[in-house]
Amino acid sequence: MKTRMVLFACCVAGSLTAENWPHWRGPNHDGISSEKGLPTEWSAEKNLKWKLALPGIGSATPVVWGDKIFLTCATDKELLLLCASTEGKELWRRVMDVNKGGREGERTSVSPSPSTDGKRVYTLTGTGVFSAHDMDGKPAWQFNVEQRYGRIKLGFGFHTTPLLHEGRLYLPLIHSGGAWVVAINAASGEEVWKVDRKSDGKAECEHSYTSPCLWRDGAKAYLITHGNDYAVAHRLTDGGEIWRLGDLNPKDSYNSTLRFVASPVAVAGLVVIPTAKNRGVVGVKPTATGYLAAGAAGEQWRLNQGTPDVTSPLIFGSEVYLCRENGTLVCLDAATGKQHYAERVYAQTYRGSPVAADGNLYLTARDGMVSVVKAGTKFEVLAKNKLPDQLTASPVIANGRIYLRGFEALYAVGVK
Question: What is the pLDDT of residues 40-76, one digit of tens each?
């Protein structure tokens, strides 16, 4: 019970300052908002504050700072950064790169999500263009990742979102052409450090589509990267390894196609590591060090199956939530990994990661359905809300509204 209470306290304490949504997983990189009084029901006619038509498609999650929303789009010819007001008006747009084509739907060159610190907005395209613009759209710096670090060799395009934290952007480059983790100065675009990320993974396992995760407890923090058969915790100062989680793709039953897509999530008391293709999920103690094989003292718990394949886990209160790609929601005890339930919420394809606020979970299905599920150990669907669009981005919660990015439009949901 003590461990459960610690986890709960950490989740709540970490979300009290939520106001903006500066990162694809929110103000604390964990998918949790402190907003209250959000709507649980909406449609094209009910509780829809506004709808802004977009010039192109995309799966990247928007970010919000103050009265500005930033998001990316792919048109037939260009990869765009858009800025919209929280009143639903486009303020400006900037071209990040030409659209070299070859991908449609959720596989575009604008899958990495933007981030912002209120000074600049940072973007990375699937074509490797890393940019910073000020809040009015003036370019600050730009470079091409492939020109600096070599050609990225991935089977399904580049989807990793850099992690912005205290003046640095942390970017893992894990693919068949090499594996590194780099830290970039957010003010200048210059490299702060670069480390090799070693692995004995092979074949498609070399491909990682995940985004880095931040663990933080007060002033203490470290980075977690995920891919090529391992999850690795890195010091923020120099990228050095703190712990390495193994047996995610056991050698005695090795799957050479086990590429990781779902990203880890962390709160002060727990780190949750997914895998792929219905394999395992691991709860790691944040105090772990060294190499962690299955059953190591640094593990809180380990399950042999049930991972989400694409969507990232969510830790909220005393529970861990896993939204499977088919709409099955799995609820686990955060302290033990024991399953409370596994229930189908809505049968569809799920790509966006779940978020939580005010005691509820928000889950986005590709066909435009957003299900609201009551948090806790008992399965209870509060509402199912359909919009006439495709949703593959994660929901955004800021300033009393829920923002949903579709292929055709950006939607602002709020109590009318």
Answer: 999 999 999 999 999 999 999 999 999 999 999 999 9
CATH number belonging to domain 2-413: 2.130.10.10
3-state SS of the chain? CHHHHHHHHHHHHHHCCCCCECCCCCCCCCCEECCCCCCCCCCCCCCEEEEEECCCECCCCCEEECCEEEEEEECCCEEEEEEEECCCCEEEEEEEEECCCCCCCCCCCCCCCCEECCCEEEEECCCCEEEEEECCCCEEEEEEHHHHHCCCCCCCCCCCCCEEECCEEEEEEEECCEEEEEEEECCCCCEEEEEECCCCCCHHHHCECCCCEEEEECCEEEEEEEECCEEEEECCCCCCEEEEECCCCCHHHCCCCCCECCCCEEECCEEEECCCCCCCEEEECCCCCEEECCCCCCEEEEECCCCCCCCCCEEECCEEEEECCCCEEEEEECCCCCEEEEEECCCCCCCCCCEEECCEEEEECCCCEEEEEECCCCCCEEEEEECCCCCCCCCEEECCEEEEECCCEEEEECCC
- The 10s digit of each residue's pLDDT in 184-220 is 999 999 999 999 999 999 999 999 999 999 999 999 9
- Name the residue ranges covered by the structural domains of the chain: 2-413
